[in-house]
Each structure stands twice: as C-alpha cells, then as structure tokens.
Amino acid sequence: MTSSANAPRTTRRADPALESGTEPQELLPRRRPTQERSRRKFEALLSASRELLVDVGFESFTCEEVASRADVPIGTLYQFFANKYVIVCELDRQDLVGVQHELAQFDGEIPSLDWLRFLNTFVDHLAGLWTTDPSRREVWLAMQSTPSTRATGAIHERALAEQITRMLTPLTPDTPPERRHTMAQVLVHVVYSMLGFSVQGDQTREDAVAELKRLMGAYLSVAEKESRMQHRRAARAGERERPRRL
C-alpha cells in the first residue's frame, strides 16, 4: 500500500476554465434556460451561489454545495455551468445588468445644473446596495481570481463604460470621444474599487463613500471645465479664420 506521505500530489490548476497556452476568453453559461421550469432551477442555482459566496468565500466555493443548497441535481448544474468560474461570471453579469438599469434611470439628469447632486444620489444608492447585499463584494473579489474571470470582468466593465461614455457626452460635448471613453473607464474602475474598500472593516462606510463622491465630483468638474475651454478655443480659432476666408 502506498503511504499518504509518498502518494503523488494532485496539482490543482489555478484556472480550469482555461486550456494551457490559450488566451483568456469570456466565460459564459453552456446554455441559458428558455422554459419556466428550467429558469427556476437556473435562478435557484445563482441564488444559492450568492449565499455560498458570502458564507464561505470563493476558495471554498464548490459546485456540489451550490447544487445541494439549491436542491438541484449536480448534473443539472453542469448543464448550465462548466465550473464555479462560469457561475461567478454569470453573477457578475447579473450585477452589471442591474447597474445598467439604474444608470438608464439616472441618464438624462446630466448636464443639469444639479448634476453633482444626482451623482451623489446615485453613488449613495450603489453604496447602499453593496452594504445591504454583501454578495456584490464577494462576486467582485471572485472576479479577480483568475485570468479568465478577470477577462470576463473587463468585458463587463467595458459595457458599463460605454454606457457612461454616452451619458458624459452632454456634460463634455467638446471633449474628444477617445478621452471621454477613457474617462468613463477610469470612473468605472475607481467606483468598483472604492465600493469594495467601503465595506472593509478598517474604516466607516460613510467616510469611504464620501471620499468617492469627492473624487468623482472633482474629476467630472475639471472635465466639464476643460470641455468649455475647448469650446471657447475652437470658437476663437473660428473667428480668426473667418476674415481670411472673406
């Protein structure tokens, strides 16, 4: 009999969703349900996954425990999800869709004179979601765990940044589109990083959220001012060119 001390160790791959030597790909469910009965099982699995993430964290998260908590056969889980990495990416997509819906309701408030007040209200709303739903932070942290989850998270962030880019257009109409898109990407990354920071235990949530609002408000105020200056410079240049054409 081979002793446990001499038995070969099983090397656990850091990211079983990836094939060796391939570039990270977006992780998607094998299929999404179309019938009501399947949709209920799908949603039960995702709900159980959120609960499990909060209870044990991503390292101890297993598909078997998800299926058990959802009262769904493990084979049914694997019909939808190849592994736990795909599950957490679908949870992140759920959170993305929710934020996009919230942003759609917020859209149109810019460039109101009260845009800063609306911005503060929206940040408070997001921070409240992270406080009342601890799974949001756990999902965000899990998305940083492997190359493929990070690649999928980057795709989700880009989708959100594209929406924010459109919202920023009325506030910064004379800012070059490429810079506006970069600004949106910066805002998305900073907001999620600061929301994660806000629910850590070594500072109060209110202080962290207040600093986030200061950062975003100052950043967008400068961007708005620069856009106005760019407009005035373009107008002056046009006035100088006009006599020459005459």
TrEMBL record:
Ranges for the region named Disordered are: 1-36, 226-246
Q: DNA-binding: present as a keyword of the record?
A: yes
Q: Which organism is it from?
A: Rhodococcus rhodnii LMG 5362
Keyword annotations from UniProtKB, A to Z: DNA-binding
Q: What is this protein called?
A: TetR family transcriptional regulator
Query: Pfam families, alphabetically?
Result: TetR_C_22, TetR_N
- HTH tetR-type domain span: 39-99
According to the UniProt entry, its GO molecular function terms are: DNA-binding transcription factor activity; transcription cis-regulatory region binding
- Where's DNA bound on this chain? 62-81
Annotated Basic and acidic residues bias: 236-246
Keyword DNA-binding appears in the UniProt entry = yes
